[in-house]
């Protein structure tokens, strides 16, 4: 399996491609990594250095890959943190080129906009670009609860609200939705839910809430979900596999008290998660 992964990169730590690429490789996937930004570290530190690339820079790399004649062998495109709307347009052009070469390829868009604690952390114009262009073009999306609220225009309080919000975004295009870090009125305080929706069916998975707050977990989640979905063609199965790996990764990170997720030290969790959780039809 070959995945074109177009997202941010950091030199130090693990968000964006620095979180997503290695788990996919560990699962035997060839990853063609194109970086939308190259920063010293993730923006959660409040300070960072580095550059945001631009649309032409992304298109140039995709053109070079196309010149190798390999686009027909591309099974999926994964996008995340975009940097600018101009980069977003280049990503959607790449998706169109891949689909023209391989109509079966899947586009998984992680609509990185913000989260509940921090609010919006991307540049102006990106939230609208995600909602109006990227999400409608995707086959799979992996918003967190904050992002799903924004994309659907529904303020999610209950599981029923979450299902309605998933259905609302599905109506705009994506067949499969994975909601991460979901906390509804039905979620116990010591727990965290994920909800997957496909074809009018929904699956929920609940794990303990770990006492840590890290960046990059969502990027690894989207990558793992895409790979497992591409292999199983089942949102429920992909949910179970991705969530177990991410939980194992974060449990190890919490135990170590690390500021960055332990993508390398906890790599066995991507292949053989130490703990699995029931996937419940809801
Ligand atoms: N404190 C936590 N305890 C347990 N699992 C967590 C925790 N934080 C994140 N996760 C897991 O990682 C997944 C993705 O992280 P999330 O924070 O939702 O992504 P993002 O960084 O995109 O907002 C969540 O759905 C959850 O399964
Ligand atoms: C450069 C960059 N990419 C991606 C992300 C997304 O990380 P997360 O998986 O926590 O949403 C962040 C968040 O801080 C970031 O700074
Ligand atoms: Mg995210």
Automatic annotation (TrEMBL):
Keywords: ATP-binding, Kinase, Magnesium, Nucleotide-binding, Transferase. One of its GO terms (biological process) is pyridoxal 5'-phosphate salvage. Its EC number is 2.7.1.35. Substrate binds at residues 8, 219. Gene3D superfamilies: 3.40.1190.20. It catalyses: pyridoxal + ATP = pyridoxal 5'-phosphate + ADP + H(+). It is an enzyme of class 2 (transferase). One of its GO terms (cellular component) is cytosol. Its cofactor is Mg(2+). GO terms for molecular function: ATP binding; magnesium ion binding; pyridoxal kinase activity. It comes from the Bacteria. ATP binds at residues 110, 147. Residues 90-258 form the Pyridoxamine kinase/Phosphomethylpyrimidine kinase domain. SUPFAM superfamilies: Ribokinase-like. Pathway: Cofactor metabolism; pyridoxal 5'-phosphate salvage; pyridoxal 5'-phosphate from pyridoxal: step 1/1. Homodimer. Pyridoxal kinase involved in the salvage pathway of pyridoxal 5'-phosphate (PLP). Catalyzes the phosphorylation of pyridoxal to PLP. Belongs to the pyridoxine kinase family. PdxY subfamily. This is Pyridoxal kinase PdxY. The lineage of its organism: Bacteria, Pseudomonadati, Pseudomonadota, Alphaproteobacteria, Hyphomicrobiales. The gene is pdxY.
């Amino acid at each position: 399996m070959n995945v074109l992964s177009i997202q941010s990169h950091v030199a130090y730590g693990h968000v964006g491609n620095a979180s997503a690429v290695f788990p996919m490789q560990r699962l035997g996937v060839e990853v063609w990594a194109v970086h939308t930004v190259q920063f010293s570290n993730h923006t959660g530190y409040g300070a960072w250095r580095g550059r945001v690339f631009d649309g032409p820079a992304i298109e140039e790399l995709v053109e070079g890959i196309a010149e190798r004649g390999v686009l027909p062998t591309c099974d999926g495109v994964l996008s995340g943190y975009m940097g600018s709307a101009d980069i977003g347009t280049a990503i959607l052009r790449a998706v169109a080129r891949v689909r023209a070469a391989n109509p079966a390829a899947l586009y998984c868009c992680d609509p990185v906009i913000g989260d509940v604690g921090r609010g919006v952390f991307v540049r102006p114009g990106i939230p609208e670009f995600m909602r109006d262009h990227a999400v409608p073009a995707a086959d799979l999306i992996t918003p967190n609860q904050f992002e799903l609220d924004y994309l659907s225009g529904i303020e999610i309080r209950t599981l029923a609200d979450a299902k309605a919000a998933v259905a609302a975004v599905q109506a705009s295009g994506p067949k499969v939705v994975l909601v991460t870090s979901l906390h509804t009125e039905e979620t116990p305080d010591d727990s965290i839910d994920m909800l997957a929706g496909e074809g009018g069916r929904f699956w929920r998975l609940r794990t303990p809430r770990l006492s840590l707050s890290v960046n990059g977990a969502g990027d690894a989640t989207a990558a793992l979900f895409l790979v497992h979905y591409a292999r199983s063609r089942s949102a429920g199965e992909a949910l179970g596999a991705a969530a177990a790996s991410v939980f194992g990764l974060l449990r190890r990170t919490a135990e170590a008290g690390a500021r960055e997720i332990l993508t390398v030290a906890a790599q066995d969790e991507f292949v053989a998660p130490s703990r699995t959780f029931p996937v419940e039809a809801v």
